[in-house]
Request: fold
Amino acid sequence: MNFTKILTPLAIIVFTVGAWQAFQWAGIALAAGGVVMWVLLHFTRMVTILKKAANRPIGHVASAVMLNAKLKKGVTLMHVIAMTRSLGALQTVKDAQPEVYRWTDAGQSRVDCTFVGGKLTEWSLERPASEGSEATTPDSATPALD
Reply:
């Protein structure tokens, strides 16, 4: 269960009641101003992230390997969009759970991220097979020169 959905409104109520007891109506005005400021900070952050992502191709990332290394379980989709500075290419049906987004780099390496309820649950890195890997021989197959 996500406790932040319960704790955030509860904290706002406790803050407002405390402000009322300390300063009456001036306290209510102070609490309302604080809550509005908090909402505006989150809104501004979201708009800034989406504005940066709007200028990039959908599903493109500079390095899929670096993205794979930076991902952590439980981060939000907005956090991943901020890291990649790009909207992910949706791989599943719109509004269906779980949501799978893909980010691909210039070398065709890609990261598929699965989000359940807006939180990252799993991800996988897929790298293209290199063409020269079949032609190379292992070092043990070459004769040793004495």
Observations:
- The helical segments are 4-23, 25-54, 64-70, 77-84.
- Confidence is low (pLDDT under 50) at residues 134-146.
- Residues 58-128 form a domain with the Beta-lactamase Inhibitory Protein; Chain:B, domain 1 fold (CATH 3.30.1450.10).
